[in-house]
Amino acid sequence: MDARPKTRIVVESSERLRWTILDQKLAVGIAGQRIKVINYAEGKMVRVFKGHTGGEWLCLVNKRQEIVAITRGGRNLKVLDVETGEAVAMLKHSGKESRNSTPVWYFMSNPDGHGSAVASMLEGDHLTWYIWDVPSRSLRHTLTAPGKSDKASMTVADSVFTANCRYFCCKYKESPEVNSDLAVWDLDTGKVAHRLFHDRGGSVTSVVAMGDDKILVSYCEKSIDILLWSLPQGEQLLRLPGHSNRYVDRLLLTEDERHLVSYQSLSAKEREFILWDLVAGKKIAGFTVEENSIIQLACQGNIIAVGARSIGSIVTFSLTGSDVIRSELSSYAGSSQTTTASEVYLDLIDPENDNKADLDDIDSDFDDDEV
Q: pLDDT tens, 286-307?
């Protein structure tokens, strides 16, 4: 495989950039607090959407054909067509528009952008989820906390849909004095299907959905390990020993769901990641990298890519059979690997590069306020 870049895009941005590749030319991401589509093959800005993202992560839905964003007033969600740039629908938390209605605090979808559902929360009520069916533009369920404690909390960062959006899972803590568990809702009924407790008293730190009916959960405190759960039955299927001394920061699942990458911070300077074989239920390899490293999966999960500011290159770990092969892709312009690349310049946050067209035909929360 030729690892040399065909085009080098020089990016001017003070932000960490996260982009989703749509096809062989287009990518969509967030820059300058705006959602933008670029032609990365030619280094051109294609489209700029109006609307807030609600965070640093992009909310793609419907097989990456639509984007969900917050309206200008901040009280509702709107659906944007990726191809045309038009706002095609609004998801209203209240049937009656009111300037005193509660703003949206958080919303999310399947991270791969192929799901059909979106979950949202409103400011001041972090114990209620609104579940939207985006294709029908309708509110499917209002999910409330499974317990009755006034000290309970749900963590938005540890919430996921399964691939088919049948189940929704969220880290739940009954009170500050107890360890957190995982609340699971069956979205066919809108009711709590299970609360998944660690058998040794561990507290949830990270979650990732696996297919249509399973979930991987990492734990800390009384037990530092990773469990695979069946959601229909609420049963434990597999236990991995986890990392040696601290909780797992994040879990990454390969596209074929055969391998898992877990990583944690070891110190102010180092981060450890482990590659697991989920079929055999064992550790394949472990590596230590810089703390500020960014870890991503590529090529359907057959390659683990690690980038760090200080080394100026991307280190890859390729899985071949039972072996893990380390290699390095230089990102320096002077490298012999990249001298054949054409170079283009694209400032992603300069307003002069944004299109001037108003792509928002339903940008307002209020029927009488369309400015």
A: 877 776 677 777 766 677 777 6
What type of residue sits at position 182?
A: L
Sequence-distant (6+) residues with CB within 8 A of 299 are none
Has residue 42 been placed in a domain?
A: no
Tokens of 277: 């074989």
Domain-embedded: residue 307: yes
Tell which wins on pLDDT, 167 or 306.
Answer: 167
Tens-place pLDDT, residues 66-75: 999 888 778 8
In a domain, 256, yes or no: yes
- What would the DSSP string read from start to end of 295-357? EEEEGGGTEEEEEETTTTEEEEEEEETTEEEEEEEE--TTSTTSTT-EEEEEETT-GGGS--S
Give domain status of residue 91, yes or no.
Answer: no
Q: Which residue has the tokens 């054949």?
A: 340
Q: Using alpha carbons only, what angle is made at residue 310 by residues 308 and 312, rounded to the nearest 5 degrees? A: 75
Q: Based on the structure, what is the number of domains in the chain?
A: 1
pLDDT tens sequence across 220-237 = 876 678 999 999 999 999
Contact 242, 219 (CB under 8 A): yes
Structural domain of 317: 249-340
